[in-house]
Amino acid sequence: MSKIIYGSESSHEQLRQAVVDFVEKYPRHFEQYVDGGTLQDHIICMRENGAWGTQLEIYAAATLLQRDIYVLSPDHSGKKYRWLLFTPRFSYPEANTYDKCYITLCHTNGNHYDRIASKTGSCNCGREAPVLSGIQTEVDLTEHIPEVV
């Protein structure tokens, strides 16, 4: 994502820390995406350079940057790919300095996210978004769950 946002991978560590800081600042919006363990444990892990990003970080990046992120992801067989859409979880006006073009990534080998770049131009502006299959709305797993006091 650093290459997409800054034109170089050299800012990947700063972008990682900005995304983790954002998750830490707005935990209730992202805790539902933790895959095992606690959100705090996940944050500690993600502060380490080299830790693999998850869907949680993609949602956080989409929200921080206020940009849709499309991920080309393999199904359980690893042979058929489909587009998944990660939209910002809430409005974040402080992101108004960023480009609003959507981002495209490929979930390569089920463990790494690679940039999908346009053959021409530096962004996806003016291009039609990928076609989604299946559910095209977000699901909030925290909806209708009573708050524990």
From TrEMBL:
One Pfam family, short name: OTU
A GO term for molecular function: cysteine-type deubiquitinase activity
A GO biological process held by the record: protein deubiquitination
InterPro entries reported for this sequence: OTU_dom, Papain-like_cys_pep_sf, Peptidase_C85-like
Protein origin, superkingdom: Eukaryota
OTU domain residues: 1-119
CDD domains xrefs: OTU_CeDUB-like
Name the record gives this protein: OTU domain-containing protein
